[in-house]
Automatic annotation (TrEMBL):
<dbReference type="InterPro" id="IPR051816">
    <property type="entry name" value="Glycosyl_Hydrolase_31"/>
</dbReference>
<dbReference type="Pfam" id="PF13802">
    <property type="entry name" value="Gal_mutarotas_2"/>
</dbReference>
<dbReference type="InterPro" id="IPR033403">
    <property type="entry name" value="DUF5110"/>
</dbReference>
<dbReference type="InterPro" id="IPR011658">
    <property type="entry name" value="PA14_dom"/>
</dbReference>
<dbReference type="Pfam" id="PF17137">
    <property type="entry name" value="DUF5110"/>
</dbReference>
<dbReference type="InterPro" id="IPR000322">
    <property type="entry name" value="Glyco_hydro_31_TIM"/>
</dbReference>
<dbReference type="Pfam" id="PF21365">
    <property type="entry name" value="Glyco_hydro_31_3rd"/>
</dbReference>
<protein>
    <recommendedName>
        <fullName>PA14 domain-containing protein</fullName>
    </recommendedName>
</protein>
<comment type="similarity">
    <text>Belongs to the glycosyl hydrolase 31 family.</text>
</comment>
<feature type="domain" description="PA14">
    <location>
        <begin position="647"/>
        <end position="783"/>
    </location>
</feature>
<feature type="signal peptide">
    <location>
        <begin position="1"/>
        <end position="21"/>
    </location>
</feature>
<dbReference type="InterPro" id="IPR017853">
    <property type="entry name" value="GH"/>
</dbReference>
<dbReference type="InterPro" id="IPR025887">
    <property type="entry name" value="Glyco_hydro_31_N_dom"/>
</dbReference>
<keyword id="KW-0326">Glycosidase</keyword>
<dbReference type="InterPro" id="IPR048395">
    <property type="entry name" value="Glyco_hydro_31_C"/>
</dbReference>
<dbReference type="InterPro" id="IPR011013">
    <property type="entry name" value="Gal_mutarotase_sf_dom"/>
</dbReference>
<dbReference type="InterPro" id="IPR037524">
    <property type="entry name" value="PA14/GLEYA"/>
</dbReference>
Length: 946
């Protein structure tokens, strides 16, 4: 997408806030609390500091308004700030001491200036307003503001995107939710600023040679917040001050989570938990996905199917006795037989479209509906012992709208929600629904911290204790590689907790290519690499369909999985301390390199590495080294491939039926292939949600050999050759047939049929693998050099975590990366606490701690500890211990402990290791620490010899 994205929106009746005005409309500047306002002709601009480093910009035109209901902003009105105001004939300057804002009184454009006088960002031209052209919002405007970016400036954020983009310079972004897109209109810059564009409708970012711009489809005004740096971290801190802090999770949430789609019975789930404890594989959480209720008619009922889950409370109790925490899925989509559906329907709180499983979504923009939802959730799940929530499909995905275009199209057809149209409030459903669960659980108890996992995100959602996962991705190396910049940009949008389906949700569909199953060695190699990456995601979770995901299911790779799982737990003191930094200081765990190295141009486009906390740099391996992955299938099409049944025309006879039983013909055509992708509406001849279709003809393959059909549709998928149905040996959201031997020149009678029985998005496609593709799949993969190139940012030294070898920054190195290793570097000056090996996060206090010091620079670290759960930390019931490394003097200073909490260790042991080549390296305890210190809470200075 380039600037052309904006063309349609502005082609009709485009007008600008006027750049000049007649003398009668001379500039009028008014002083307002913490800012200034300008009215000139039809132009209205208001600047208001909400904090010394944050300014709100509002612009509107006659017919618009400065009134705004913000769902994201929670900061209360600011006390009077010390804002200095200066005015000339052409400009008004507001100076908070942290940020200067210069308003051009002639055209209303704004320049943001750092205290040292350099320009952080400048608007390019006045704001633009045009009619929406939407029947839902006839009085509103589409809005746009252009900006002039600096040469070489890096732009990051906009939530999670799956297109592999890291730096948004010279790119376009569509900020619309979808299954695998979790978006938020927040950006940050290497120039040391951030922007929150406070709009909930479809929004577009574009950057090209003409400049950068933000456009939104529905608004009464331009409304955005500018955050001064000077660092990206500072901008994110200001964003969270505006939209809410991210609460801490229980310590258990930062451990390993086992999930699958789905555990079928109470016994199956408990057997998995018992086996983990029997095998002594570290784990904290297990997840119950969908279908614990009684059939599709009871979708999202919150009521357990008594035949398969006879005693949910006993299930939770046993999990707790095994020191597991349980997460249970809840849906805002409610099946018609459920009591909650009936009660919501009686009160008029359900949207009318019937979703893909026969459910209806409730109106989460209605606070009363949210409270009713919680009543059912509390009674049937929370009261029985559940610990965490999986809130699936919070875009919401009513009708399998897998693309942004489809989601936009379908949601705009839904009737207005409680506060307005879905054209205006397209994106923040997940914000309002997760926040309601967070607030309601907090009302019930402060003894258990809220932990929510959800598939969508929006600005402010961090305050709801909501972590985002990247949606229903497919098993493919390219899809996996795209997860890394997706997660980094999500974090750089100010929402710190993110994860993904380790192993991918689907093996052979939804972008996945591994239709040979989970025991395919090529898939197991991919799984192992994804698991290694997941070890350093803020939330560590395996999930997916079609094949078991438990750690012991991966044969020769199981020891490697256990190795990385163990490393996660050894790093728990480091991770939990970073979680406290997130909550108390607005920090980020998953950190793009530009956050720490904004002045290193070479780091600005490195989207396949990231810092995990301030010290560890992960470089996941994203290419296969041992087994060649299967090629993706291709559309079955081409010259002379298909002919109509009579043989007279190229293509297939396509017959469409206006019922789901292939009886009432409503359209016929000749089509070159089976390739329907109806994601933004159906053709006119389809009159209702129930329809079916059949393609028939002659198939003549060009080459003899092995073929395999890949059938993509949501409904049943049947393919026939010479009158016989071809069997499938892979069935999920897509389906693959068994391999077939076909002869070149021979003609086969071909038929494919499917149907649809739900509203909305639909597809029917026939892909295949040809003999040439099968031959390429069979060729051995030879990668002799099992390494990965890693960029070491400049301005600091680095250490290889696995060897302890020191390296200089500002260079690329070839790091060891065999299947048992993922490159992991540590920044010089780091202090990394490593706890004992445990089976779960709270098995015992983190004692003894091996304190690894990476020399070459001064360093600091604050160890945080509390009761591991409850909200007592909000009342100051926790303890911190600060460490300081003086590199020149070779001394480690341990400050007096601050604070206390029940169960705190009065004395503890620190084994101090000065890392070097072969010393203090890898997962295992260092055999000979440099010093052992018994710490009793008083200041301790440890001198270490060279």
């Amino acid at each position: 997408m380039r600037l052309a994205l904006f063309t349609t929106a502005f082609a009709a009746a485009l007008f600008l806030i006027p750049a000049t005005a007649a003398p009668a409309n001379s500039p009028e500047v008014r002083t307002i609390a913490n800012g200034a306002a300008l009215d000139r002709g039809g132009m209205h601009v208001k600047l208001e500091f909400t904090a010394p480093g944050t300014v709100r910009v509002m612009k509107w035109t006659d017919g618009g308004s400065d009134k705004k209901r913000s769902l994201s902003v929670v900061q209360s009105a600011s006390a009077k700030l010390a804002i200095k105001t200066a005015q000339t004939e052409s400009a008004v300057t507001l100076d908070s001491g942290t940020l200067k804002v210069v308003l051009n009184t002639a055209d209303g454009t704004i320049r943001f200036v750092a205290p040292d006088g350099h320009t952080l960002l400048q608007e390019q031209g006045p704001a633009q307003f045009s009619p929406t052209g939407l029947k839902q919002e006839p009085k509103a405007f589409s809005i746009r503001q252009d900006f002039k970016l600096a040469a070489g400036e890096g732009i990051y954020g906009f939530g999670q995107s799956q297109d592999g983009v890291f730096n948004w310079r010279d790119h376009s972004a569509k900020i619309v939710q979808a299954n695998t897109a979790a978006v938020t209109p927040v950006l940050v810059s290497t120039n040391g600023y951030g922007i929150f564009w406070d709009n909930y409708s479809k929004t577009l970012w574009n950057d090209d040679a003409k400049g950068a711009s933000l456009w939104s489809e529905v608004a009464d005004n331009v409304d955005y917040y500018f955050f001064a740096g000077p660092t990206i971290d500072d901008a994110i801190v200001r964003y969270r001050q505006l939209t809410g802090a991210a609460p801490m999770y229980g310590k258990w949430a930062y451990g390993y989570w086992q999930s699958k789609e789905h555990y079928h019975t109470q016994k199956e789930l408990l057997d998995v938990a018992r086996k983990y404890r029997d095998l002594q594989i570290p784990i904290d959480g297990i997840i119950q996905d969908w279908n614990y209720w009684d059939g599709l008619q009871n979708w999202g009922s919150t009521v357990w199917d008594a035949t398969r889950y006879p005693d949910p409370k006993a299930m939770y109790d046993e999990l707790h006795s095994l020191n597991f925490h349980a997460m249970t899925v809840i849906w805002e989509a409610l099946g018609p037989a459920s009591d909650i559906h009936k009660e919501m329907d009686k009160r008029g709180w359900l949207y009318s479209p019937v979703g893909w499983a026969g459910f209806k979504y409730y109106d989460a923009y209605n606070p009363a509906a949210n409270d009713l939802f919680w009543e059912y959730v509390r009674k049937n799940i929370f009261s029985k012992g559940n610990d965490a929530w999986w809130m699936d499909s919070t875009e919401p995905d009513i009708v399998n709208a897998l693309t942004k275009d489809a989601h936009e199209y379908e949601m705009k057809k839904v009737e207005d929600n409680a506060i307005g149209s879905f054209a205006r409030y397209l994106n923040p459903y997940s914000l309002v629904v997760t926040e309601s669960v967070y607030k309601n659980q907090r009302k019930d108890t402060d003894k258990k911290r809220v932990f929510i996992l959800t598939r969508s995100t929006f600005a402010g959602q961090q305050r709801a204790a909501a972590a985002t996962w990247s949606g229903d991705i497919g098993a493919d190396w390219g899809v996996y590689a795209a997860q890394i910049p997706a997660g980094i940009n999500h974090s750089m949008s100010g929402i710190p907790y993110w994860t993904f389906d380790i192993g991918a949700f689907s093996l052979g569909c939804q972008g996945g290519v591994f239709a040979n199953g989970g025991k395919d060695p090529a898939y197991q190699e991919l799984y192992t690499r994804m698991f290694q990456f997941g070890t350093f995601a803020p939330i560590f979770r395996s999930h997916g369909s079609e094949t078991p995901r438990e750690i012991w299911e991966f044969g020769e790779h199981t020891p490697t999985l256990i190795k990385f799982d163990t490393l996660r737990y050894r790093l728990m003191p480091y991770i939990y301390s970073q979680a406290w930094q997130v909550t108390h200081n607005g920090a980020s765990i998953m950190r793009g390199l530009p956050m720490d190295f904004p002045n290193d141009p070479a780091a600005r486009d490195v989207g396949d590495q990231f810092l995990f906390g301030p010290s560890l740099m992960a470089a996941p391996v994203t290419t296969p080294m041992y087994h060649r992955p299967p090629e993706a299938s291709v559309l079955a099409t081409g010259p002379s491939l298909f002919h109509t049944p009579d043989g007279k025309k190229e293509g297939l006879k396509a017959t469409y039926f206006c019922d789901e039983k292939w009886e009432k013909v409503c359209h016929e055509a000749v089509e070159p292939a089976v390739d329907l992708y109806w994601y933004t509406g159906w053709p006119e001849f389809i009159k209702g949600p129930k329809f079916s279709m059949r393609w028939e003809g002659k198939l003549t393959v060009p080459v003899s050999g092995t073929y395999r059909f890949d059938l993509k549709s949501f409904g049943p998928k049947k393919i026939y050759l010479d009158g016989k149905e071809v069997a499938h040996n892979y069935d999920s959201m897509g389906s693959w047939t068994i391999p077939l031997q076909l002869e070149a020149g021979k003609t086969y009678d071909f038929k494919f049929e499917t149907n649809n029985a739900v509203l909305g998005a639909f597809r029917a496609q026939v892909y295949w693998k040809t003999p040439a593709a099968h031959a390429r799949d069979a060729a051995p993969l030879t990668v002799k050099d099992k390494t990965r190139e890693v960029y070491l940012p400049s301005g600091t030294g680095w250490f290889d975590f696995w060897t302890g070898k020191a390296m200089n920054g500002g260079q690329k190195v070839s790091a060891a990366a065999d299947i048992t290793t993922m490159p992991l570097m540590v920044r010089a000056g780091s202090i990394v606490p490593m706890g004992p090996v445990v089976q779960y996060a709270t098995q015992k206090p983190a004692d003894t701690i091996e304190l690894r010091v990476y020399p070459g620079a001064n360093g600091n670290f604050v160890l945080y500890e509390d009761e591991n759960d409850t909200y007592a930390y909000e009342k100051g019931i926790y303890a911190t211990i600060a460490f300081h490394w003086n590199d020149a003097k070779r001394t480690l200073t341990i400050d007096p402990r601050k604070g206390k909490f029940p169960g705190m260790l009065a004395k503890r042991t620190f084994k101090i290791v000065i890392v070097g080549d072969g010393h203090g390296a890898g997962i295992d305890d260092t055999a000979r620490p440099d010093k052992t210190v018994i710490y009793d809470g008083r200041k301790t200075v440890v001198a270490l010899t060279r």
